[in-house]
């Protein structure tokens, strides 16, 4: 199975890890040590019980605080993605119409 590259289209909810806080309800990778790393705790915005630890280096390399420009860029990216999906669907519909016309002609020939 191969890995793909993806860009986030939403906003992540995170807060700093607090030294000594209980971690039994937070997923932590075996490689991570929150006590010494002092990274971030992320949560699923749609399920606040779903939490995981984010290593400081990963956070610093890949995430930044939200500002209005970032939100606007994210919304613009989502709009562009939606437009591309619509264009693909319109192409698919055009192909299906051509195939339907071809099948109708084939049926007409067979019916003769």
Q: If strands are numbered along the chain, what order do they take across the biggest sheet?
A: 1-2-3
User: What percent of the residues sit in helical stretches (DSSP H or I)?
Assistant: 40-55%
**Morphology:** elongated
Largest sheet: 3 strands, antiparallel
Structural class: alpha+beta
Tell me the Rg in angstroms. 24 Å
Number of strands: 3
In total, the number of domains comes to: 2
Task: Return the average pLDDT rounded to an integer.
Answer: 91
Short précis:
The protein has 3 helices and 3 strands; from the N terminus they run E-H-E-E-H-H. The protein has helices at 34-37, 56-62, 68-111, and strands at 13-16, 40-44, 47-54.
Summary tags:
single chain, 112 residues, alpha+beta, 2 domains, 15% strand
Structure description:
It is a single chain. This protein is of the alpha+beta class and 112 residues long. It has two domains: 1-65, no CATH class; 66-112. The protein is built from three helices and three strands; from the N terminus they run βαββαα. It has helices at 34-37, 56-62, 68-111, and strands at residues 13-16, 40-44, 47-54. Strands 1-2-3 form a three-stranded antiparallel β-sheet. β2 and β3 form a beta hairpin. The longest helix has 44 residues, at 68-111. The radius of gyration is 24 Å and the shape is elongated. The relative contact order is 0.12.
Topology at a glance:
Blueprint: E1 13-16, H1 34-37, E2 40-44, E3 47-54, H2 56-62, H3 68-111
Antiparallel strand pairs: 1-2, 2-3
């Amino acid at each position: 199975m191969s890995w793909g590259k993806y860009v986030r289209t939403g906003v992540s909810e995170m807060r700093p890890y607090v030294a000594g806080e209980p971690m039994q309800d937070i997923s932590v990778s075996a490689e991570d040590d929150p006590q010494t790393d002092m990274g971030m705790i992320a949560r699923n915005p749609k399920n606040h019980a779903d939490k995981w630890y984010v290593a400081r280096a990963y956070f610093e390399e890949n995430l930044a605080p939200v500002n209005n420009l970032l939100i606007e860029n994210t919304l613009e990216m989502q709009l562009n993605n939606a437009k591309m999906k619509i264009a693909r669907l319109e192409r698919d519909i055009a192909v299906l119409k051509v195939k339907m016309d071809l099948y109708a002609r084939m049926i007409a020939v067979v019916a003769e």
